[in-house]
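COMPLEX REQUEST
Ligand: MGD
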Amino acid sequence: MKADKVVRSTCPYCGVGCQVLLNVRDDTIFRIEAPFDAAPNYGRLCVKGRFGADYVHHADRLQVPLIRKTPPAPGHRTPSRYPDDWREATWAEALDVAATGLGRIRQTYGPDAITANACAKATNEDNYLHQKLMRAVIGTNNVDHCARLCHAGSVTGLQLAIGSSAMSNSIAEMKDLECFVVTGSNTTETHPVISTFLKQAVTRNGAKLIVIDPRHTEMAGFATLWLRQKPGTDVAVLNAMAHVIVKEKLVNDDFIGQRTEGFSDYVESLEDKTPEWAEQISGVPADDIRQAARLYGQAHRAAFYWGMGISQSTHGTDNALSLTNLALMTGHVGKPGTGLNPLRGQNNVQGCSDSGGLPNVYTAYQKVTDPDTRHRFEHYYYSQDASRRLPDTPGLTVTEMVDGILTGQVKGWWVMGENPMMSEPNLRHAQEAIEQLEFFVAQDIFFNETNVYADVLLPAAAFAEKDGTFTNSDRRVQRIRRAVSPTGQARADWEIICDLAKRLEKELGLTTAGWDYRHPSEIWEEMRQLTPDFGGIDYARLEREGGVHWPCPSFDHPGTPYLFEEEFPSGRGKFYTVDYGTDSELPDADYPFILSTGRVLYHWHGGTMTRPSALNAIWPEATVELHPNDAARLGLKTGDWVDLSSRRGTITARLLVTGRSPEGTVFIPFHFAEAAANILTDNRIDQRAKIPDYKVCGVKIERAAEIPLDRAGADIPLEDRGAIKDMVSA
Ligand SMILES: Nc1nc2c(c(=O)[nH]1)N[C@H]1C(S)=C(S)[C@@H](COP(=O)(O)OP(=O)(O)OC[C@H]3O[C@@H](n4cnc5c(=O)[nH]c(N)nc54)[C@H](O)[C@@H]3O)O[C@H]1N2
Ligand SMILES: Nc1nc2c(c(=O)[nH]1)N[C@H]1C(S)=C(S)[C@@H](COP(=O)(O)OP(=O)(O)OC[C@H]3O[C@@H](n4cnc5c(=O)[nH]c(N)nc54)[C@H](O)[C@@H]3O)O[C@H]1N2
Ligand code: SF4
Ligand SMILES: [Mo]
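STATUS: Structure written out below.
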């Protein structure tokens, strides 16, 4: 089929930020390709980028604003059903309901009684305005987003050690790596195009790869060395690697002397962290730990790449600090091919944080507690009334919001494009909180498990229906472009926010903070003026260059593909003594298995976007991965229906017997509402990062008491599905 037009944009799924060519005919995307000459993907796409964006045209997209017919009383909020419980409304009506409801909460309980979730799927411009509304109109810093459930452990650790949490290398460097460690990242399924460059480094350039992961991921098949630790024992393994590096004199004394502090105390703490000690805790053979330390320590250039296995833990901060300790002691940071790389998950999770979608910072991590910064923003936002002030205390994190609702501190909630009723740990806890809300506004492209609880639901335009920018995992700011008309009456998030802000200002009798933008480029211009690190990036430049890596302070600056060449943002890098310990819920006699949750290639988070997509046919149901030895002991085989229970609840799904998961550990993806992983997970958190432990809690597994025959696809044998066949034999 011939296209009417081909529009260059950015993939809406993961943080790789692949460039796509949307082929459009009759206002419909019918094919997606990739430009061969453009970073970061150079013609490569994974199955989601190529075939998964069909959700844009799905019949279930929200078409018109919806208002709940009977507003629920606090304590009695239940999920509403469509169409019975909703009435279709005009934009004016729906925005009025939203503004009146939020305005009433603010007047009754004060600004901090309202919290908001920003959206790592929406653009920088959408998220910038979202935080601007919360801060400049409502008057609270209660803004956060899914990054809290994601790289919060990494961010906190990296901030402590080096004062910056961005990935230090660019994707372009990956194929030339000499030695690298991949830990807690199932890269081929979660950052597929990055994994192709990493695999290329191994297969074409002879790079040495060390994988540290309890699961036999596809990356482990490319590794020189694979360390299979027990879930949650990373600190022991990484400390022992550091011990070996010290004992075998593989430390980089010049680097330690010139660029770091705290080494001598740290070294003392390593004395008893022998590989044999770590083997006891982690199950990884001591000699493998020695070999890994030598490979990493002796390399001229070596880098870390990591994902949720490191971050999503009650000791996620400690895990990240253990990685930075290793990088600092070997000097493997600050030059190409070395560094610390938390692979960012969502298409725009980097950008959502960069745009101020966090409770303690404005754009590019400028602190709300810094008076000079705050006055600069006040001066800009409150040009019509110099007496107005922005809030100066950091707001609530997403994990604290749930508790804030339960304690009565929080009464009103605005969720732009997130699905906490699938993504929060311990869903019953989250549900109890939502039931207590006095007022709830949601803004999304689909119904999801969360926004069915809302009082008013605002339909947003999807990525292909709007203009703006996303910032990918290596801090490259890239364009998305409107290729098709919005579905029904859906509007871009930034347009919705501007109208909501104006109504709220009227409702609250405030002078305007400025909401007249004609195009996202004007919003970016405001961000640029308020953010020294974005100073050299504007739409004209993005048009010319395709993408620019921030920090980029001026138009003649080339952008920064890797960081920390001269010094760390905090000056010297700091060593932190980290002791192995665990606060996770460990298995016991009642719940003898460890539950580990995560992802599969074909689905996205709560499934809102991928279950309506063609991808669902490839992997249509939840699967419970169990090791063959455990399955044999329990008398279970692939395809059997099992009940999986924790202290918090039970789900029912089919069993997939595979050596991918280690003995004693069960793995399930969290994409399937009918068997939602987070019914089982635990909501205890890392005290510093406030991130929950999605990778370790206790569960038991039994043959299902009842088979849910009404489940879609339940009549097809599991082992007949192509994608699953590969897993069974793994
Ligand atoms: N297909 C797909 N891709 C995605 C997403 C998606 O939903 N679907 N989501 C995106 C998002 S937001 C994110 S954050 C990324 C996440 O990307 P990943 O972090 O790669 O995803 P997870 O499946 O959570 O897998 C984490 C890995 O951690 C390992 N692990 C478990 N426990 C431990 C442990 O104790 N220590 C260590 N070191 N490893 C452990 C698991 O075995 C697994 O290999 O993916 C992004 N990409
Ligand atoms: N058990 C378990 N739970 C986890 C994790 C895990 O590994 N295990 N991982 C955690 C991690 S790393 C993350 S990042 C979170 C993700 O958690 P969430 O962010 O809650 O999950 P998503 O499903 O990505 O939600 C995105 C929503 O945005 C909507 N959307 C898409 N595009 C747009 C747009 O342009 N505008 C608007 N307004 N809406 C849009 C989608 O329809 C969807 O409802 O989950 C966390 N939860
Ligand atoms: S690797 Fe990520 S950005 Fe690239 S096509 Fe796949 S999902 Fe999209
Ligand atoms: Mo994430």
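REMARKS: Residues 324 and 617 are 41 Å apart (CA to CA). The chain is about 30% helix and 15% strand.
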